[in-house]
Specification:
alpha+beta; FAD/NAD(P)-binding domain; Flavocytochrome C3, Chain A, domain 1; Methane Monooxygenase Hydroxylase, Chain G, domain 1; 3 domains; eight-stranded mixed β-sheet
């Protein structure tokens, strides 16, 4: 209620997807008082929609070093090596922790974890739950644990409208209903920004609200030019437009065919390569879709995909599925270190809201859910070392501009900062009314090369001078470049 006393907590978590739930649980298990801000139901988070699994080196023939090599190859010379090392070394332990929390992952007939194969991975290392329903299963289990945890206060259907800042430190959050949270630290787990584009695999709320909150409060953002397009999103099927078909299906033998029925790409190449090949084939043939042939794949392995398309009248055991790339995952975000710390004291970020440099210019499939848990555990531990808020503090709300976007801005972003970009188009986007659209355009203009998910038609080659160079946007400043070794 407006005017009421602020809620006091050791930790405030913004966002209730996989990262937010895990951060809250991890902190509560350490005895912390946690306030979790959930703008929507758990079923509306991007994590809940996630069909991919968790990438972890669990097979006998795998290792963290091999996983790191695959991550760095997919990231096209822009992966921060230290971030990749942390993810690859700590992911197996996080999988086992989730099992201890009650998440049941798919197993083979011997009771061992069934490991899947996805694009860019050299060995089977993807842990799934319910086939392609991993996000749903994990979020459902974690949300039940959060609801039962006495140390966590969940503010349902509350929206963070501003971060509270005192003497250069983030000390809480204000909500749209007038409530305020005071906390020793704030962790933003509000997801990415792929729903800014017209054609997307994301839920409607993935508009980069966490990025705008952080930037308005004084935190740096990084690498906003890197938005990954998922190659196989359904197109032209009523009721299933943009529905993502997991890469794991291609790992089990599904193929991509052009209008003449010919294969034209290595289906298990990294996502940027597959998406670009599809985009080029669509342009060459003047068509809107290529075809995913999953008729040889056991439908029992991916029941939610088979059922969802069946409800739309498409029998994947007999028919081809029309697909085309769609905006899927933001590699950029709030600049953080390996413990989730942003450049603003007291503010942390985890998951798609954060940019550790782990994903480089092109995220390796299924590293993102692993990232939520690996860096979520680290951020929770680090955030709890922050001092309590002074009773004499008089924090000021740093209110960001609205994250809501018009259809016109969405269309402009999709046209001018889609899979093919030019300097002239990006300069036009810099005049767009939406603040995050302008920042994305500024970052994309700064990177005068083609690398991973960022493709400049006026700079079609990868430029080695940009290796390990990340695009940084400080508040009230133009974009610059910074080397992350």
């Amino acid at each position: 209620m407006a005017g009421s006393s602020p809620i006091e907590a050791d930790l405030a978590v913004v966002g209730a997807g996989a990262a937010g739930l895990y951060v809250a649980l991890t902190a509560a298990r350490q005895g912390a008082r946690v306030a979790l801000i959930a703008a929507s139901s758990f079923a509306q988070t991007a994590s809940y929609w996630a069909q991919g699994g968790l990438a972890a080196a669990l097979a006998a023939e795998d290792s963290p070093a091999i996983h790191r090599r695959d991550t760095e190859l997919a990231g096209r010379g822009l992966v921060r090596g230290s971030a990749a090392a942390v993810l690859c070394e700590e992911a197996p332990a996080r999988v086992h922790d989730l099992e201890r929390l009650g998440v049941r992952f798919d197993a083979d007939r011997h009771g061992q974890l069934a490991l899947g194969l996805e694009g860019g991975h050299s060995v089977r290392r993807i842990v799934h739950a319910g086939g392609s329903a991993t996000g749903r299963r994990v979020v459902r289990e974690l949300s039940a644990l959060v609801a039962a945890e006495p140390g966590i206060e969940v503010l349902e259907h509350a929206r963070a409208t501003a971060l509270l800042v005192s003497e250069g430190r983030c000390v809480g959050v204000s909500c749209g209903d007038g409530r305020a949270l005071h906390a020793g630290a704030v962790v933003i787990c509000a997801g990415g920004a792929a729903a800014l584009w017209s054609r997307t695999t994301n839920p409607p709320g993935s508009l980069g609200s966490g990025l705008l909150l952080a930037h308005a409060a004084g935190a740096e953002l990084a690498d906003l030019e890197f938005l990954q397009f998922h190659p196989t999103a359904v197109i032209g099927v009523a009721g299933r437009e943009g529905f993502l078909i997991t890469e794991a299906i291609r790992g089990e033998g599904a193929t991509l065919l052009d209008r003449d029925g010919e294969r034209f790409v290595d289906e298990l190449a990294p996502r940027d390569a597959v998406s670009r090949a599809i985009d080029q084939r669509l342009a060459q043939t003047n068509t809107t879709a290529v075809w995913l042939d999953m008729r040889t794949v056991d439908p029992a392995r991916f029941p939610n995909v088979v059922d969802a398309l069946g409800e739309a009248g498409l029998d994947v055991t007999r028919e081809l599925v029309p697909v085309a790339p769609a905006a899927h995952y933001m590699m950029g975000g709030i600049t953080t270190d390996l413990d989730g710390r942003s450049t603003l004291r007291g503010l942390y970020a985890v998951g798609e809201s954060a940019c550790t440099g782990l994903h480089g210019a092109n995220r390796l499939a299924s590293n993102s859910l692993s990232e939520c848990f690996v860096f979520g555990a680290r951020a929770a531990a680090a955030a709890l070392t922050e001092p309590a808020v002074s009773k004499h503090a008089e924090p000021t709300p740093a209110t960001p501009p609205s994250a809501e976007i018009s259809a016109r801005s969405k269309a402009a972003l999709s046209q001018l900062a889609g899979m093919r970009r030019t300097g002239a188009g990006l300069e036009q986007l810099q005049r767009d009314p939406h603040p995050l659209v302008r920042l994305i355009a500024t970052c994309a203009l700064t990177r005068t090369e083609t690398r991973g998910a960022h493709s400049r038609e006026d700079y079609p080659e990868l430029d080695p001078n940009f290796d390990a160079m990340h695009t940084i946007v400080a508040p009230a400043a133009s974009a610059g470049l910074e080397r992350w070794d």
